[in-house]
Amino acid sequence: MASLSEEVLLVVKKVRQRKQDGTLYLMAERVAWGPEGKDRFTVSHLYADIRCQKISPDGKAKIQLQLVLHTGESTTFHFANESSALKDRDATKELLQQLLPKFKKKANKELEEKNRMLQEDPVLFQLYKDLVVSQVISAEEFWANRLGGINNTDPAVVNNKQEVGISGAFLADIRPQTDGCNGLRYNLTADIIESIFRTYPAVKQKYSENVPHNLTEKEFWTRFFQSHYFHRDRINTGTQDIFSECAKQDEKGLKSLVIQGVKNPLVDLLSLEDKTLDEGYGICTTLPSTSNANKTVKESSNSAIIKRFNHHSAMVLAAGSRKGVFTSLLTASSSETSSTDGNSRDSDFFQPPVKKVKLQEAIEYEDLQRENRPKTVALNLKKSDRYAHGPVPLQSQHYTTSQDIINSVNYIRHEMMNYKPNLTEVLSSTAASSAIAALSPGGVLMQAGAQQAINQMVPTEVQGELKHLYVAAGELLRHFWSCFPVNTPFLEEKVMKMKSNLERFQVTKLCPFQEKIQRQYLSTNLTGHLEEMLQTAYSKFHIWQTRRMMRKT
Amino acid sequence: MKLNIEGLLVYFPYDYIYPEQYSYMLELKRTLDAKGHGVLEMPSGTGKTISLLSLIVAYQRAFPLDVTKLIYCSRTVPEIEKVVEELRKLMEFYAKETGERNNFLALALSSRKNLCIHPEILHANIVVYSYHYLLDPKIADLVSKELAKKSVVVFDEAHNIDNVCIDSMSVNITRRTLDRCQNNVDTLQNTIQKIKETDAAKLREEYRRLVEGLKEANVARETDIYLSNPVLPDEILKEAVPGTIRTAEHFVGFLRRFLEYLKSRLRVHHVVQESAPQFLKDIFDKVCIDRKPLRFCAERLQSLLRTLEIADIADFSAVTLISNFATLVSTYSQGFTIIIEPFEDRTPTIANPVLHFSCMDPSIAIKPVFQRFQSVIITSGTLSPLDIYPRILDFRPVTMASFTMTLNTFNVCLCLVALSSKFETREDFAVIRNYGNLLLEMSAVVPDGIVAFFTSYVYMENIVASWYEQGILENIQRNKLIFIETQDAAETSMALEKYQEACENGRGAILLSVARGKVSEGIDFVHHFGRAVIMFGVPYVYTQSRILKARLEYLRDQFQIRENDFLTFDAMRHAAQCVGRAIRGKTDYGLMIFADKRYARADKRGKLPRWIQEHINDGSLNLTVDETVQLSKHFLRQMAQPFRQEDQLGLSLLTLEQLESEEMLQKITQIAHQT
User: Fold this and answer.
1) Is B403 helix (H, G, I), strand (E, B) or coil?
2) Of A177, A546, B498, B641, whose CB is crowded by the most CB atoms within 10 A?
3) Are strands B126-130 and B106-108 parallel, antiparallel or unpaired?
């Protein structure tokens, strides 16, 4: 099965799977395992299908690696080579660790899309349950022509998809857990790592500088979590910490941002006051003596926290808008020189219009002016009360009060008293009586009533089940009929498969249902129409098959 | 529209008008008619500035001989610029309506860099500048002293005017000041030496002038050409400069002696507090410096600097400071206190002696303004209780009125949360956690921006640290980004801009800030930039400060204002400033949350402005965090409904016809809450 073109990245022998010895192969796009002595893979997973890998804790007797798929299934490999099991496993893990994220993006996007479709469309979801979960058809078949819409769209549209921002609290999501022996465990996911990298480019830089040449990935993150950098209230003590440089870089970035100043003059606290009190005048309660020497450890740790929060929020904000501080931070030194020497601040030249606009905004009283902006459509709420309070249980107001009834009776009586039949424009008696007959039960216009009767006879639960069967059958039939005219080998294969799918559907879904209703409602044949549709499909298939045989012979 | 305000034609550059604007103009006109002073409180966002400008400009046009000039003082540079913009709008409206270009000259001074516009000020019809140009004697002398008597002076955003007055008259002297002063004196001596060799005539000429005394200034003051300078006492104008400091060398020698004396005073090991007369007695006993030459010190130095033709006066700021101090301390026997502290309270081991010469009486600085100008209007969104300003500024207003915002529906939801934060218990773990929970809950409910104010910076730092340890901040981060005011203005500006960016792009953010800080005094959080504002605790001033204690004593003895009344008044005006930051107009809406049960007490509530008190009802008192959240949810859903002009018309927004109806005019007269 392994096609020759596939590049094999890693081969690990003596790997057991389901108590069977075999060999594990890591290839360019998939991981596969074949039992010993056989020339085929019994296990094969595309990287894109793998959600994550898990490894057995150090010190366990069995050295295992588990692959968890997006579908929820998992495959466990047991590394059984006595001498090098741990090494084998770690090599596999490291390689997978590098490979998986590459496929993750794509898989995630697809998966997200599928998920979204299922969530938004309850009918589709039911269909998925009926057909895929009950294994009538495989998930790939199910999605085969549904996802077409996604994959076939203009790539530009896909690429322009709005970038997902970063949660402000992503660091909070890394809740440390005690591991029972005086240590802390942090669970990192690829998402969190990405968030850290996007928010703190300095850390990413450190990562690419140090991993894997100087540190393993695990060591890197361990140091990260131990660093004062992660614990914002700790004050930088040593310089041996590889993250102290990150902190410095952050500091520098922050400083350059501060130096750049703000664009909106109305929030510029520096130019807020027309500073006319000279030094030495005024009741200044706190004199400028905030040198660090005067601060207690606690105070400087507190102000470090505050700084960090501001920085973190700014970085998260910048990461969300992709450009922005991100680049300006990395090029901090260059922009610094251009902005401090005073002359090169061209931006000053452009400042006034911004200021003018902001001032105009600030003094505008829109409600004092006659409205002349385009009319917008206001949300028209019939019951704004319900909007404001949320749904409320049915209450007595739905019942008509006796006063209302009396009023309406009076009204009708009043109407009746003044009623004057217009005798020149009435129907003839024959036409009238035939109309009455047509509208009576059993009449021509009351045909629908008979079906209603069935509706009322069958409990809603069976009705629902029937509906699902119809939808599922419709879906399968749609697949089936879409194969005609069968003019390619692929379609041939597909039509065969679809026919067997239909048969399987009949056996696994339709027949049990038939038996069930026969047990309860002997007389009613609810599934007649469904069977008819299947039969039509079968006969079409037979005609096609006989024709094909004839052509072949 | 064109309005008729008791017979005065007022051009108002909008199609509609708020009833309270009309009422405000009415009161303003009555004040001008009476040629008296007024105290007017009206919430921000009700178009106070344009009402003021419209009416006063109309008044100037109608009675050009009675009111020659409008002097409009505001606090911050953006405020000043806004006034100029509004004025421009008004002038454009005049031009459009009357068809002629207005020959009004308006002038805005916004920075000391453009200070040499002296003659222009005299001709301008309207001058817009910062408080300091009028209240700080050092600047007023340069800029404002020739302003005509028939001017109308407006102090907008005047809720802190007493502090501005006090600041302008207070001096702090550190060792560094004295060192720099020493250098100044040395430079002076060298310069004098040089001039003596090259141009001795100049010094002789100065001596002659000084013998003549300051007669010129005296004539000017008596003939009422100048705004008097509170630093320059009346008596000395009539006298010649005393002989002991008349020659340049003698004066420099005198300064040296004074400087040595001050140095010796800073060599203390314990805190010293004394009155001005005590200080004068001590200086006479120790170094034989008399009161009289001290009083001439500031004036004598100015003369010397002029004579020596020193271009950069900024270099001599230290010696100027010292001589200003000398003049002040010898002029006022009351209203000032001297406190010498050998070190800061927080760091008793580090010697950092400071001599505080603190003004305790704001009326001293503002007295010349009230005396000189025929109408002075004190106005702001928060001036409650109204009667306290005339008392502490020592003047008699002819009108005092408070206006509220008329609304068809309440656009403010006010919650008084029953949390405790008394000074003694506020470091309490439970208190801090409750605060955190409130903020956390609100962060999940309120859209876009939330601003939270703390009572002091140190307190906020501690709370932030605890919230960090307790994981509260991390939970808040799930809902909104967090930005925090720092003591660095540039850093805070950046945080503010980022905060606005986060509100703008829909992420939502929380700004943690400090009452009495720069943000609480100067930054508006309109619309989505502030959907909720939370005041944690009551922002009392730090009462342990010796300067404050002295001031409180003074207020008690001189004005019969009880300490607690003043402290509460001061705390409430700052709390009102903070919560008022988020509501900047009738189309704006927001939650005001006072997170401290003490706000529910009558003595606190009663000191809040009327437009805030109005929103307090039984349903908003003593709430739990949960109840606050429920109330907020309900309120925010209501507010999410579209705001329509039609609903406002006739109630909180009037057309000209509606305004002229008898019934409405009657209603409007009730808007102004007279005290």
Assistant:
1) coil
2) B498
3) parallel
Closest alpha carbon within chain B to A372: B645
Contact call for B133 and A273, based on CB within 8 A: no
Flag if A287 and B500 touch (Cβ within 8 Å): no
Contact call for residues B634 and B65 (beta carbons, < 8 A): no
In tens, the pLDDT along B607-624 reads: 999 888 888 888 888 899
Nearest to B354 among A273, A282, A287 (CB): A287
CA atoms of B369 and B227, how far apart (whole Å): 7
Nearest to B15 among A290, A368, A388 (CB): A368
Set of chain A residues whose Cβ sits within 8 Å of the Cβ of B496:
262, 267, 269
Which phi and psi (to 5°) does residue B41 adopt?
Answer: -110, 125
Mutate which of A267, A376, A377 to disrupt the B interface (most B C-beta within 10 Å)?
A267
ipTM: 0.86
**Going by DSSP bridges, is the β-strand pair A43-46/A30-35 parallel, antiparallel, or unpaired?**
antiparallel
Q: Ranked by mean pLDDT, which of A48-57, A96-105, B49-58, B585-594 comes out on top? A: B49-58
Number of Cβ atoms within 10 Å of the Cβ of B124: 18
Residues 6+ apart with CB under 8 A from A44: A1, A30, A31, A32, A33
In chain A, which residues have pLDDT < 50?
Answer: 1-4, 149-159, 286-293, 323-351, 396
Question: Do B498 and A261 lie within an 8 Å CB cutoff?
Answer: no
- Report the distance separating Cα A15 and Cα A3, nearest Å: 22
Which of chain B's residues have a Cβ under 8 Å away from the Cβ of A165? 507
**Under 8 Å CB-to-CB from A517, ≥6 apart: which residues?**
A462, A524, A526, A527
| Cα separation, B109 vs B137, whole angstroms | 17
- When CB atoms are compared, the residue of A305, A314, A384 closest to B498 is A314
Q: Which pair of structure tokens corresponds to residue B289?
A: 């410096």
Q: Which residues contact A338 (CB under 8 A, 6 or more apart)?
A: A344
Cα A71 to Cα A91: distance, rounded to the nearest angstrom: 26
Distance CA B147, CA B63 (A): 18
Structure tokens at B143: 């800029």
pLDDT at A526: 76
pTM surpassing 0.80? no
Q: How distant, in Å, are the alpha carbons of A371, B638, B644, B647, B650 from that of A375?
A: 9, 21, 11, 16, 21
Among chain B residues, CA nearest to A278 = B317
Q: How far is A308 from chain B (nearest CA, A)?
A: 10
Scan for tokens 């931006």, then name that residue. Answer: A347
Say whether A233 and B468 touch across the interface (CB within 8 A): yes
- Higher confidence at residue A345 or residue B325? B325
In this complex, do B110 and A274 lie within 8 Å of one another by their Cβ atoms?
yes
Shortest CA distance from B654: residue in chain A = A368
On whether the CB atoms of residues A118 and A125 are closer than 8 A, the answer is: yes
Of B440, B488, B497, B496, the C-alpha closest to B467 is B440
Tokens of A379: 């949300």
Q: Where are the alpha helices (DSSP H) in B312-361?
A: 317-331
User: Residue B650 and residue B643: Cα distance in Å, rounded?
Assistant: 15
In order of B146, B150, B216, B217, B220, the CA distances from B223 in angstroms are: 12, 14, 11, 10, 5
Higher pLDDT, B4 or A191: B4
